[in-house]
Amino acid sequence: MTPKRRTPPLPFEIDAAAGPHPLGMTPAAFLRDYWQKRPLLIRNAFPGYVSPLQPEDLAGLACEDGVLARLIEHDRATDGWRVRSAPIPEDVFPALPDRDWTLLVQDMDKWDADLRALLDRFDFLPRWRIDDVMVSFAATGGSVGAHIDQYDVFLLQAQGHRRWMIDAGPNPPLGFRPDVELKLLREFHATHDWVLGPGDLLYLPPGVPHHGVAEDPCLTFSVGMRAPSAAELLGDFVDTLAADAPDALRYLDPDLQPASDPYEIDGEAMRRVVEALNALRMRDPDKLGDWFGSFITQYRSAVEPAADEAARPRIEVEWDLAHGATLARHPWSRMAWRRAAKGARLYAGGQVHVLPARDAARLAAADAVGGGLYEGLSQAGRDAVIALLESGHYQLQLDDGE
User: Fold this and answer.
1) 255-279, pLDDT tens digit by residue?
2) Alpha helices of 177-266 — where are they, by DSSP H?
3) Closest Cα partner for 207 from 179, 157, 170, 162?
4) Is 57 left (phi over 0), alpha (psi -120 to 50) or beta?
5) CA distance linking residue 252 with residue 52, whole number of Å
6) Which residues pair with 345 in a beta bridge?
7) H or E segment to which residue 15 belongs
8) Tens digits of per-residue pLDDT, 138-155?
9) Which H or E run includes 204?
10) pLDDT tens, position by position, 376-390
11) H helix runs in 128-251, sequence order
12) Whole-angstrom distance, CA of residue 121 vs CA of residue 201
């Protein structure tokens, strides 16, 4: 009998330099073998990568209101941690030491067009699943401690070098330290230890303990996924059900029998409770889809597009589009679309627009709407564009640069 040949284990590290894709393999192979299954270090995912940002860009943003940023300092002598949130006073940065601190700024793809373009390299994933690009600058020795994330993340080394240690073993210890503000692991035992240079990419599934330490001053770009917890989904879902429920929909017991014990909540009472709750369920797939589309295009959004107080009349906007103007998507606008029983739905920051599938797909994918795209839409599609402009999801850019 011929012995069965064992399949060699999948590698934790590959080199993508010779391949056509930054994953070092086809997207289908990556999703099959690694996505939410095992970590992967991809050397030379972006060969010769040059960061479009400098540390000074991050520091400037961290001083502004409305920016999600944190400054994390580590005292090696006491193993203590200090966390400061934006806006961070400008005089803090010149006074920082040469080592052991990290500045993290979230949603950098909303502030920088070059970083936003980086997301196109991850188009094998549903765009609505991508949350943001967080950028961290770390002085030598800078770290945020050993921790886990509850979402998938791709860590692109953009400048300098960072040592990443991960625990890819089974059942790693996940208890947190009780003495620090950050959710740091009480125990951490690395199974892999790598130093990443510019262009290297580390993929981590949810729940993998990891610890990054700057070997020298460095920038790291973290492409994180949107992963609402079951509690967040349930909370929003129940709120939506409750808001739409008619007041007449109540607990009913037309089949009530004489009580043997008037203080007992019996099995029949609990059956009626279940019936009352089931009456609220979204049995219509389109209604359920509209709820989720609205939820996911608003989820974890630090800034909501706002309507222009001096909106141009539609007739003027259409004239502008016909003469070279464009409608640029607001950087904080999140769009997705879904096929429905009839036509499709376009979702944008919680709004729901009914229009043909072709229009919905084109608008969800477009960073800007020009005259040609606008004219190629159906009436429902053009109506949706104007409604989105009026609510701030598009910004009119005239041909003369206004």
Assistant:
1) 999 999 999 999 999 999 999 888 8
2) 230-244
3) 170
4) alpha
5) 63
6) 338, 354
7) strand 13-15
8) 999 999 999 999 999 999
9) strand 201-204
10) 999 999 999 999 999
11) 230-244
12) 12
